[in-house]
Amino acid sequence: QVQLVESGGGLVQSGGSLTLSCAASGSAFSLNLIDWYRQAPGNQRELVAGFTNNGHTSYADSVKGRFTISRDNVKNTVYLQMNSLKPEDSAVYYCHTELSRWGMRYHYWGQGTQVTVSS
User: How far apart are the C-alpha atoms of 6 and 22, rounded to whole Å?
Assistant: First the structure.
């Protein structure tokens, strides 16, 4: 139904910037339903950024003021701009969406992209 593909991860020094992309394809749906998660070894999966019901943005406290989620409807892509990166931001970043059909919720995940922030 939905395919999500992340890209843009890599190695960056502390204080640097990186932009992640999530390209969506398949069934038609609003890009506002896409959000970003991350998971570091030994840690729980963490929701870091997404869109509210009003189309506004929402962020985890740990990234607020440093990360920005945005969308490009023409390119069917959601971005995560990450600034002032810290080593604690190192993780595999996933884009995710959740769709409802016939009262059932379906989760779709990208393969993930590794972000490593060196000190």
Answer: 4
